[in-house]
Input
Amino acid sequence: MKNKKTRYVMYPAWEYRREIEDLNALSDRGWQLEKGGCFRSVFYRDESVLYRYALDYNRSIDDPVRYRDTFAEQGWEFISDTFNGWHFFRKVYDPSLPPEEYEIYTDETSVRDMSDRWSRLGYAFGGVELALTAANALFALRHPSVTGIACTLACLGLGVMLLVGAWRIRHPDVAGKPRRSMGWCFTTLFSVLLLGLLFGVIRYTQYSSSEYVYDPAMPPWTWEMSVPLPDFYTLDVEADTDANVDITVTNKSGKVLTTLGGGGDLRGKATIFLLPGKYDVTVQYVDGTEPGTVGTFRFEVD
Amino acid sequence: MARPTEPLTESYFYILLCLYRGPNHGYGIMRRTLALSEGHVHIGSGTMYGATGNMMKKGWIQECPTPGADRRRLYRLTDAGRQVLLDEAARLKHLAAAADSVMIEGGTENEE
Output
């Protein structure tokens, strides 16, 4: 039988009591917490002891030694803390002791102080996310794209989630107890929202510029670009040449997706939907162009 | 007349009270509070850390050296803390006396 196991699950801050209940239940089944984390927790097998766990949220501990000593005096063993201010403690369980022995906050004021510490952060970040939602929405309206919409929705989802969470941790009696499966639901939802944000943040941009001297004996000049995500892309072309040229975007099957044409100081934009893959941007001088004609071209795909 | 401090929470009151006779450490304060309150008030570690930290900032209590190799933190009452405790005890006595005057000594409702 395995003596160690790693559990990948996230609990929203406002469900920290659910996390404590789950840790206690795991201890009852012989799995004791070795290292607690926001995304990953490590357990070891020991059926000889039962623990009860406590989670404290405090990012501004002015005297860490006094903090841990105060907990140790009442039998709490420090396990680990997380980068964002959560501290895991445990105490050997004695069924003859009253439940208050396993609470670290025992009056309304200190419980409220702790929930206020997180809810202030939740409200602040929730507000920032909503501001980002507005900014992304404005950008997406001006430049519609799948990534822009994904980013907007992800910001909105995170913002609403944080604001609701900040309210819930502040009003636990009104908010009620979360359902059993919320840990996994939250892990999934949070991952989707983060992916949405990442999807939106990776804004694909490629540039190329070239000076091209026309030689009828040579094949047309071609720039190969690769597209990582399906989306609407804008091909922005600036050309400086005395001749007329056709600029085409083709996929690898040779299908022409868009063509920009003209001469002199050609400036053009084309918005096309591209699937992930490689595409060719080809510059072709039209018939009748004098050999030796010089052109400079600049492309931007965004 | 404005009160010098807000009414104390039960935890703050008991912590100051438990230091009235001399220095004590967190665990000792917790046990003594449990006894004085006849099991009604339990001061958990998080509450104790926050309350003692706040009271040290206000200058009501201070840490004092721990004898020997004892790692437990010893706290003692300052003059300011003693005065806060006395004021609070007087306020509570006044409240209790007012309650008694109505509920035990036969005062009547809406008496002028």
